[in-house]
C-alpha cells in the first residue's frame, strides 16, 4: 500500500454540514478517523451516514463546516484525494460485459497504471479475493458474495490508504459475510484504514475499532463497541417470553436496571441475568421461555435510535 506518512489523522471533520435545499441531512458533526483503524458509521435509514460518506469520498461538496481527508480539503484537492481512496459502493457497479480479470485491469487503467502493472495487480487481487479460478469468467453469473469480493478487489487497484465501504455485506449469506470480514481484517493488518457503514450490529462489533451512532443527522454516541455497551447498556440481558395473550406481570421493573416490553418478549437489562431469573421464579412467575445473553451493540443501537422503522 502507499507509504505511510506521519499524519495520525486521515479524516477530520468539524461542524460538518450537508443540506439539500431546506433539508439538513448532516447537522454539524465532528469526526476523526485515525490512520490504521477501522471506523464505523451506524444509524437507521436517513440518519446521514451516506451523505457523510459521499463528502469524505469527495463526490458531494459539504455545505458548511470543515473537512480534511488525507490532510487535504476536498473542495480544492478532490482529484488528488480520490487517487488515494478506495470506494466500495452499496450496490455493485461491475461491468457485466467484461470478465472478472478485465474488470480489474480496465479499472486500473483509470488510475494511469501501465498494462504491465494492471496485469500484475490483477493476479495479486484475484488471489486476495479468492477469485483466481474465476478470472476468465463473466461477471453476471457470479454469486453475490463473489461479486462483492470482486468489487472490493477492484477498489484496491490503486493501493489506497483509505478504503470506504458502504454496507459491504448487505444481502450476503453468513458464509460469504465471514469470508468478506476475513478479507477486510487482512487489509487492516496491511495498514489500510477502513471506514464502514453497516446495518449489521455484529459486523460493527467484529470490524470496528471505533464507531459513531448517527440519528437524524447528528452523532448521538461515539466510542469502541465495548465502550458503548458499557456506557449505554448492562452486562447482560434476560429475555422472557410469556404465553400468547398473557399480561406481562407487574413489578418486573424492580428486578432490573431497565425493562423493555416488546410484543413478543420482555427484556430485563441487568448485570447478572441468572440471579434476576431466580428472582423471577421466586415470585411464582413462569415464563414460557427465558434466555440470558450478553448485551450487544444492537441493544445500544436500539436504545439510542429507537425501534420505530424509518423509511
Architecture blueprint of SSEs:
Blueprint: E1 9-20, E2 23-34, E3 38-42, H1 49-56, E4 64-69, H2 74-82, E5 85-88, H3 100-110, H4 115-128, H5 144-155, E6 162-166, H6 174-189, E7 193-197, H7 201-207, E8 210-215, E9 218-223, H8 225-232, E10 236-241, E11 258-261, E12 266-270, H9 273-282, E13 289-294, H10 297-305
GO molecular function, one term: ATP binding
Domain ABC transporter: 11-241
Pfam families: ABC_tran
Keywords for this structure?
about 300 residues, alpha/beta, Alpha-Beta Plaits, 2 domains, 6-stranded mixed β-sheet, 4-stranded antiparallel β-sheet, 13 strands, disordered N terminus, ATP-binding, antibiotic resistance, ABC transporter ATP-binding protein, ATP hydrolysis activity
Sheet/helix structural class: alpha/beta
> Overall mean pLDDT score?
92
Dominant shape: globular
CATH class of the largest domain: Alpha Beta
Strand segment count: 13
The CATH topology annotation of the largest domain reads as: Rossmann fold
| Strand composition percent | 25-35%
- What level of helicity do the residues show? 25-40%
Measured distance between first and last alpha carbons: 39 Å
Largest sheet at a glance?
6 strands, mixed
Q: How do the strands line up in the largest sheet?
A: 5-6-7-3-8-9
Low-confidence stretches: 1-5
At the fourth level of CATH, the homologous superfamily of the largest domain is: P-loop containing nucleotide triphosphate hydrolases
Report the total helices: 10
Taken together, the total number of domains comes to: 2
Please trace the helix and strand order, writing H or E for each element. Answer: EEEHEHEHHHEHEHEEHEEEHEH
CATH architecture of the largest domain: 3-Layer(aba) Sandwich
Amino acid at each position: 500500500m502507499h507509504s505511510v506518512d506521519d499524519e495520525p489523522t486521515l479524516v477530520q471533520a468539524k461542524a460538518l454540514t450537508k443540506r439539500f435545499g431546506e433539508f439538513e441531512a448532516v447537522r454539524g458533526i465532528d469526526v476523526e478517523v485515525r490512520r490504521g483503524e477501522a471506523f464505523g458509521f451506524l444509524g437507521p435509514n436517513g440518519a446521514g451516514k451516506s451523505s457523510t460518506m459521499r463528502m469524505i469520498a469527495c463526490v458531494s461538496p459539504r455545505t458548511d463546516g470543515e473537512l480534511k481527508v488525507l490532510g487535504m480539503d476536498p473542495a480544492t484537492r478532490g482529484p488528488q484525494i480520490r487517487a488515494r481512496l478506495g470506494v466500495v459502493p452499496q450496490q455493485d457497479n461491475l461491468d457485466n460485459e467484461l470478465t472478472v480479470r478485465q474488470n480489474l485491469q480496465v479499472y486500473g487503467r483509470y488510475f494511469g497504471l501501465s498494462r504491465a502493472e494492471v496485469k500484475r495487480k490483477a493476479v495479486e487481487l484475484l488471489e486476495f479475493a479468492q477469485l483466481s479460478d474465476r478470472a476468465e469468467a463473466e461477471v453476471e453469473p457470479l454469486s453475490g458474495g463473489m461479486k462483492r469480493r470482486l468489487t472490493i478487489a477492484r477498489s484496491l487497484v490503486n493501493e489506497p490508504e483509505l478504503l470506504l465501504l458502504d454496507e459491504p455485506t448487505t444481502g450476503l449469506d453468513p458464509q460469504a459475510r465471514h469470508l468478506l470480514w476475513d478479507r477486510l481484517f487482512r487489509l487492516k493488518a496491511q495498514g489500510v484504514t477502513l471506514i464502514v457503514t453497516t446495518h449489521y450490529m455484529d459486523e460493527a462489533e467484529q470490524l470496528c475499532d471505533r464507531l459513531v451512532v448517527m440519528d437524524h443527522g447528528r452523532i448521538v454516541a461515539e466510542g469502541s463497541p465495548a465502550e458503548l455497551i458499557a456506557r449505554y447498556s448492562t452486562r447482560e440481558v434476560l429475555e422472557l417470553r410469556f404465553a400468547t395473550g398473557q399480561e406481562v406481570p407487574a413489578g418486573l421493573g424492580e428486578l432490573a436496571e431497565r425493562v423493555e416490553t416488546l410484543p413478543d418478549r420482555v427484556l430485563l437489562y441487568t448485570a447478572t441475568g441468572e440471579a434476576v431469573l431466580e428472582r423471577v421464579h421466586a415470585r411464582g412467575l413462569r415464563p414460557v421461555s427465558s434466555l440470558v445473553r450478553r448485551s450487544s451493540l444492537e441493544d445500544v443501537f436500539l436504545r439510542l435510535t429507537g425501534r420505530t422503522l424509518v423509511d
